[in-house]
UniProtKB/TrEMBL annotation:
InterPro entries, sorted: PRX5-like (IPR037944), Redoxin (IPR013740), Thioredoxin-like_sf (IPR036249), Thioredoxin_domain (IPR013766)
PANTHER family, per database record: PEROXIREDOXIN, PEROXIREDOXIN-5, MITOCHONDRIAL
Keyword Oxidoreductase: yes
Natural source organism: Oryzisolibacter propanilivorax
Keyword terms of this UniProt record: Antioxidant, Oxidoreductase, Peroxidase, Redox-active center
GO function terms (MF aspect): thioredoxin peroxidase activity
This protein's name: Glutathione-dependent peroxiredoxin
Organism classification: Bacteria, Pseudomonadati, Pseudomonadota, Betaproteobacteria, Burkholderiales
Protein family according to the UniProt entry: Belongs to the peroxiredoxin family. Prx5 subfamily.
Gene Ontology CC terms: cytoplasm
Biological role: Thiol-specific peroxidase that catalyzes the reduction of hydrogen peroxide and organic hydroperoxides to water and alcohols, respectively. Plays a role in cell protection against oxidative stress by detoxifying peroxides.
Top-level taxonomic group: Bacteria
Pfam families according to UniProt: Redoxin
CDD domains on file: PRX5_like
Gene3D superfamilies: Glutaredoxin (3.40.30.10)
Length: 169
């Protein structure tokens, strides 16, 4: 499993941004080279088991949207939400959660990031397949400086307020 001091994996995620309320992107999903995008930045990264799922939609994403200004004031350049979903689902979820300008909703479609970090969650028996565990991390210049991994079915340490409290550490 990835740990503090490790570099983010060399994988490519995907991002689908809506052009505006009710409008779709005209460019389609765009590749996001994790190492290139994280270079020279401070990233508040959090991952969720699935888009549109109860805890993720009611608490996890809204917490980061609400704390976006505070995180940025504390030195965070970007906030990333990762989920093992396709970029179209992540784009629709971004629109639903009103994340534009606050949280980048990144698709880990084939779970490459989750696998490379060792933070997978096997939900095959529940019909959801291989997913990402719920966690948050603070990343500075591509290296993990804080890591908060949730236990099974928990939402206690990966929230925005916890990560905000760790930005000065």
């Amino acid at each position: 499993m990835i740990k503090i001091g490790d570099a983010l994996p060399a994988v490519t995620l995907a991002e689908y941004q809506y052009a505006g309320e009710g409008a779709c992107s005209t460019t389609g999903p765009q590749p996001v080279d994790v190492q290139k995008e994280a270079a020279g930045k401070t990233i508040a990264l959090f991952a969720v088991p699935g888009a549109f799922t109860p805890t993720c939609s009611a608490q996890h994403v809204p917490g980061y949207v609400e704390q976006a200004d505070a995180l940025k004031a504390a030195g965070v350049d970007e906030i990333w939400c990762l989920s093992v979903n396709d970029p179209f689902v992540m784009g629709a979820w971004a629109q639903d959660q009103k994340t534009a300008g606050k949280v980048r909703m990144l698709a880990d479609g084939d779970a490459a990031f989750a696998k490379a970090t060792g933070l997978t969650l096997d939900l095959n028996g529940k019909g959801l397949g291989l997913r990402s565990n719920r966690y948050s991390m603070l990343v500075k210049d591509g290296k993990v400086t804080q890591l908060n991994v949730e236990g099974p079915g928990q939402f206690e340490v990966s929230d925005a307020k916890t990560l905000l409290g760790q930005t000065a550490a």
